[in-house]
Design goal:
255 residues; mainly alpha
């Protein structure tokens, strides 16, 4: 284990350290871990947080780049629907895919040029600051904050948006065809529905919302495997209904 600590102290790439860990048995790791002092454990904890944050951001950038290239490839005649098919295979909503593409477009050049900054970002903050109405000046300030060694989390990202987008709270939500269709299917309590029945996604919306709320309790956090498939369907239905970019599953901190 002291060898692993030496690798960490030397800023060895994470992949090499993972290979070193993989070469040891669990018994060897447990025996070596008992010899770590408090300083080693503190250093190991900081390195773990830094590495996992960076890995999450790097993965999100890779996803966005690959999805962007495939999106462009499917814009040719005769390839309509292929991009949606790939999104279904990946288990993500089309809106999620566009979120990741925007993250790549707005963040890849700065973060890939300075990968040491990735540890200071959460994927949710990258997504929020990549929204179309957010100016580049907000992202530039976020980079400076990261360079100073401060975390740009969801709260900090929203503060930056509020600083640079004057109408962030009052911005009207565009009325899309899907929302118009949803409005036609909303009925007051006690009134009979007129016209054809609502699409299935609208009938499920209230139930999906209930599932999301109930899943945010301690039982969901202790046994997330029971809730993840339901949450994925619920979040996808919410995005498809509202035509907006909602939170990614990993941003709910259930896993």
């Amino acid at each position: 284990m002291s060898h692993l600590i030496d690798l960490i102290e030397a800023d060895t790439p994470v992949k090499e350290i993972i290979l070193a860990i993989n070469s040891m048995t669990k018994v060897d790791l447990e025996a070596a871990a008992k010899n770590l002092n408090d300083n080693h454990v503190t250093r190991l904890g900081s390195w773990t947080v830094k590495s996992l944050r960076s890995a999450g951001v790097e993965t999100r950038l890779h996803q966005g780049g690959l999805l962007l290239f495939y999106l462009l490839a499917t814009k040719q005649d005769g390839r309509t629907g292929l991009f949606d098919n790939v999104c279904q295979e990946l288990g993500i909503a089309t809106n999620q895919a566009y979120d990741r593409i925007r993250v790549f477009e707005y963040w890849s050049k700065s973060l890939l040029a300075e990968p040491e900054l990735m540890q200071w970002f959460r994927t949710v903050s990258l997504r929020l600051l990549a929204m179309e109405r957010v100016p580049q000046s907000a992202r530039d300030e976020a980079i400076e904050i990261a360079r100073s060694g401060e975390l740009v989390d969801e709260k900090r990202a929203k503060e930056l948006i509020g600083k640079y987008v004057d109408d962030v709270e009052q911005e009207p939500v565009p009325v899309t065809p899907r929302k118009k269709a949803a409005a036609k299917n909303v009925r007051a309590p006690g009134r009979k529905r007129r016209g054809p029945p609502a699409k299935e996604v609208f009938r499920h919306t209230e139930e999906d919302t209930r599932v999301i709320i109930e899943s945010a309790n301690p039982k969901a956090k202790t046994n997330p495997a029971l809730y993840i498939p339901i949450l994925e369907r619920a979040l996808a239905a919410y995005r498809n209904l509202c035509d907006v970019a909602g939170p990614d599953l990993e941003d709910l901190n259930l896993v």
